[in-house]
Design brief:
This protein has 294 residues and is an all-alpha fold. It has helices at 4-39, 42-56, 65-78, 82-117, 126-155, 160-182, 186-212, 225-249, 252-259, 264-290.
């Protein structure tokens, strides 16, 4: 049992880790776009902003499962029920693997139709935009099942581990993107930089799991229908909320791109700060949900 003092220290550590995570995300979100605006032609930045926003929203295929895993892992650990904990983690991994496959399919279809959806895009950017979309979208889709590892650490009240991985990911991603732009590498190379940074973070998550949470088993034979029902039941309301957020703040840039492609770059710059504030609020809400108990 945790003492009151230990509980205070735990809450302080996790809250501090979350604040550091938001600060790191904020630095990248607020300082990288101005650099890209100065260095890239308007049409190129417009295409980059569209590709980035569309691929990042693949994370919505999570539908709150990461939040559910953190909650159920915390509850199972309190009861010292390793079977329930491992069943939830394994089942979530299987569900998110299917979601990842769906994400890959969606990325392929979007890359195929990308120039037709945004018909005003310069033809010289079609090929590079498709490559960047496939590389970035594929890497974000691949990260869906890996997010179970972050959820396990959050459920165990060890937020500093996934936060450290995320900060390194953000720094590496921004650094590689800046390097590519300075070398005039083009959209495809920028997409490769983002994809490489993401894959590095997935490797870091795997090694963190094996080093600091080896007692948590993720195996196909541990997945079960009963655990799936618990996860789906918990995520039903969150899924509606995620879908609503995507409709509110996830499609605006795409709509601008369909009707006024030249304005995409200017609109993307204008909404950068707004999106950061909205995402910060969403993260705090998700953190609050993760600390719910039965």
């Amino acid at each position: 049992m945790r003492t009151k003092e230990n509980l205070r220290q735990l809450i302080l550590r996790n809250a501090s880790a979350n604040l550091v995570r938001l600060a790191a995300s904020g630095v990248v979100a607020l300082f990288l776009p101005p650099f890209l605006v100065r260095m890239l032609p308007t049409e190129t930045y417009s295409t980059w902003a569209l590709v980035l926003q569309l691929t990042v929203y693949l994370g919505l295929l999570d539908f709150g499962i990461q939040t559910a895993v953190a909650r159920f892992v915390a509850h199972a650990d309190e009861l010292d029920d390793s079977r329930q904990r491992d069943g939830i983690a394994s089942t979530a991994f299987v569900i998110l693997t299917y979601a990842s496959a769906l994400g890959f399919l969606g990325v392929a279809l979007l890359a195929w139709q990308f120039p037709h959806i945004f018909s005003a895009m310069p033809t010289s950017l079609h090929g590079q935009a498709r490559v960047a979309l496939v590389l970035m979208g594929g890497s974000f889709a691949l990260g869906l099942p890996v997010s179970v590892v972050s959820a396990i650490f959050v459920g165990q009240q060890r937020n500093k581990i996934p936060v450290s991985i995320l900060i390194v990911n953000k720094v590496v991603m921004a650094g590689l993107t800046i390097f590519v732009v300075l070398r005039h590498g083009g959209l495809a190379a920028m997409g490769a930089a983002v994809s490489f940074a993401n894959i590095l973070s997935y490797g870091a998550a795997y090694f963190a799991w094996r080093a600091w949470a080896p007692e948590v088993k993720i195996r196909l034979n541990l997945a079960s229908k009963s655990c799936a029902k618990q996860i789906v039941s918990y995520c039903a309301a969150l899924g509606v909320w995620y879908l609503a957020m995507m409709m509110i703040s996830g499609l605006d840039l795409a709509i601008v791109g369909m009707f006024d492609y030249v304005a995409v770059a200017y609109y993307a710059v204008a909404i950068t700060l707004t999106n950061f504030v909205v995402q910060t609020q969403n993260k705090f809400l998700r953190r609050s949900c993760r600390h719910l108990r039965f």
